[in-house]
Predict the structure.
Amino acid sequence: MIGMWRRRRSRLDALAGRVEELEHRLDRVAIRQCVSEVMLATAVAFVLRAVGEDLLSRLMNELRKNVSATASRQTVALEMEERAAQLLDQIEYFARLPQTTDGTRH
């Protein structure tokens, strides 16, 4: 009976170690995703800053329509749609920063 308890305890310890390793990996993936979103938002915003206000508005509206159209009503899809909408808000904010007198933006 003691041997069986030790084997069970050993398996539980191994599982706990595996869970901890998976949590660490998920944390790293989340960090990479965050960095990727910031890089994408920055790059797209710089590109959009080069277009006129009318075209910028049309592009942002089209991007928002595409995000809404591709998401189904499942919970994960709704969360992804919300994240994409937030990312588009960030892109639009940076794209609309006021320009300086030399044509560049702050």
In short: Residues 2-95 form one domain. The radius of gyration is 23 Å. The helical segments are 2-48, 53-70, 75-95. Residues 59 and 69 are 15 Å apart (CA to CA).
